[in-house]
Amino acid sequence: MKYKKGWSLLLCTGLLLAAAGCGSSGNNGNGNKEAAEATKAPASAAATTAPTEDTAKPELKSLNLWSKDDYNTYPLAKVIEEKTGYKVKYEMLPADKAMDKLNLLISSGEPYDVITISGEKAVYTDYAKMGALVDLTPLIEEYGPNIKASISEASFDAVKVDGKIFAIPNSSSQFAGADLMIRQDWLDKLGLKTPTTLDEFTEVLKAFKEKDPGGNGSSGAPMSIDGGLATTANITGAFGIGTSWNKLDGKLVPPPLHPGFKEYLTYMADLYKQGLLDKEFAVNKDATLKEKFTSGKIGVIQLPWYDIPSVADALNANFPDAKFVYLPALKGKDGQMGLGMSGGFDRLTFIPKSAKHPEDAIKWINAKLDKDTFKLIAIGEEGKHHTYKDGIYSPILPLFTDERGNASNYLTGIDEKLYPIYWQARVQKDARLFAGFSYLNNELPAEARIADPLALAPSLPEYSKNNASLNQMINDFAVKVIVGEESPDAVDAFAEKYKAAGGEASYKEVNDWYAASGK
Amino acid sequence: MTKRTKGDLVLDTAVYFFLILLGVIMLLPLINVLSKAVSAEWAITSGKVGILPVGFQLDTMKEVISSSTFIRAFGVSVGVTVVGTIISILMTALTAYPLSKRLPGIPFIMVLFIFTMLFSGGLIPNYLLMRQLHLINNLWVLILPGMISVFNLLVIKSYYESLPEALEESARIDGAKTYTILFRIILPLSMPVIATIALFYAVGFWNDYFGPMIYINDTALKTLQLYLQDVVMDASAANAVNKSVDDLMNMSPEGIRAATVVASTVPILFVYPFLQKYFIKGVLIGSVKG
After folding, report:
1. Euclidean distance between CA atoms B89 and B40, whole angstroms
2. Distance of residue B96 Cα from the nearest chain A Cα, in angstroms
3. Fewer C-beta within 10 Å: chain A N or C terminus?
4. Per the record, where are the segments of Low complexity compositional bias (chain A) (predicted)?
5. What does the pLDDT look like over A436-455, one tens digit per residue?
6. What per-residue confidence (pLDDT) applies to B163?
7. Residue A272: HSE in the Cβ half-sphere, 13 Å Cα cutoff
């Protein structure tokens, strides 16, 4: 078996060399070495000397994030191959510790032509600074007319490192992702209106607790949150801290330095004390939270719209008459409100220095961004995968899910104008999910949504370095205050600790950029 | 057997009770996963599934088992386990034989073997070495580098040493050469230890997760453990942080994950009872006499 493989390798090289027309007079050892090189990128030899482009498009090697479907056998791979003329061999990173594996592959110089990772800029910036990536600026200039037409200057600016473009960004569709869900049937039972201000919301919680519309016995708190997400969507908005960095007097301010943070914590701690917030929320995980909501123990839950179908299934199996709706953005005492929006990038695609065919990789990416091809990749054929009516693309199920459900994994750069429209077809896979999405993003007035001011920020090294640990700090502190272990007055002392732990440097960096960007 | 006193009876009852309790505690999580694998998704989401399945269905199980990725990963794992075990056990048994003899130089060679138990080159150098050997993305990388486990080698070697030397001498007088002695006399006598070590190797190859994770990038060559790890870890909170909303919409529900765990654990569970008798006897004999 071992020997057979060796022989076939040699045979392969022989054929390739013959095809390329360059004779190799190397000795045996040399031949072996080339054999291995050739199997890694079978057509590399052919590419350099081939007369016409059509016959000599090399096979590209693409590294992607993990997906439960094999990229190579998913129907879309074939479509892309037919449209671009490039055969691509896809490999994927593990689901767990993907970045560790990527570090290993990058540092050992594996010859991938295209690597696509999640939109987190820290890893990408490191690679760019280390000199591990190919500068795409000249390549895009030469081979990427579609790339230039599809992706805005602002997005490119956000991924520039030292003034050079090292990645093709897939900017995220901007939308509000999560809000508080409330049991409509509980409200109806008690004859209450949907709350629109924070005060009304508190009253509803009190009524839920006292009158117990769910019939749980009076001890149960009507609302719970995830212990890892102690800054609750919507409620934070009523205190002016709807996103992780909020505008205040012309500056961007993180929660610990924002006066609204203390008010928010005071409010939540009060809910906790009154028994309106689940006593065990600190140990809640996402699954426990959904468990409590779908088994009818609580009536208010923070839920992202993409989780609506599974939660609705479970809830309605237990309570056929149960209905739940999103709350509108609750108004605080000064009329402040808002749901934080996501932004930034879904994916970054780059070409490592070790790539064998950087030019072809860019040509491939460019070909995928051709208007028709891109549409075909994103949402398939009209009448087969989707229908088009009144400016809205709707999926045809189940074929859309079977052949395009995984399409976002294949995108390397998007048409920033059209993709957000195409993308909504994805959200329409389930009517309940679409209703939730649509309520938050189409029905609520625009001022109820707060865009993430850092969505298009360039790579900010201090910020990226400390962001995760600082957010953890904020969450831990918020939990402590809410359960009453610390008083809300401790915020000032906490702010000092936050600054010392890197918050100060992030603040300076973010605001230097913010001032310079002139927004 | 002497007659048991009342005290013995009480003690036995207590011991059995304790052990059964311990066994149940260990079994419960497994049963819970098994129940989730055959329960309706709504029941899992609302936390109704404990020991018994709620809303019994087999569709999730079917979906997992019929997934082409699962079947392929299963095949790869079975292949690596079978081929790896045969090669490993053969090479270990062969290497142990000369090392069990009192020949000049043997202590030095033993030191070399034991050295590798204590020191290794580290991850990146190992990876680079495998790359130079063109073993990346090659299933042999899961078998060849760890072909001989020094620990298993020592177990077999000490077992050989415990066999009476007179057996070999008499065979030699009858005209047998070294290989005849090894294959006709030594190995048949060592079957308990060989079976045990074979099981060690088989379970090791089957459960190997780290090797495939590091060395295998090609999707078509991923082993079952790798597939399982991916499916289970994909949903973990730590990995959800950087996910785009499309990934989140495509995430496998809990039921699928439970079914994948069941489908990849059950095959090796079936192997255990058949080899269990060798397993216990072998280790015991090897250790007592060695």
Report:
1. 44
2. 24
3. N
4. 30-53
5. 999 999 899 988 999 888 88
6. 86
7. 21
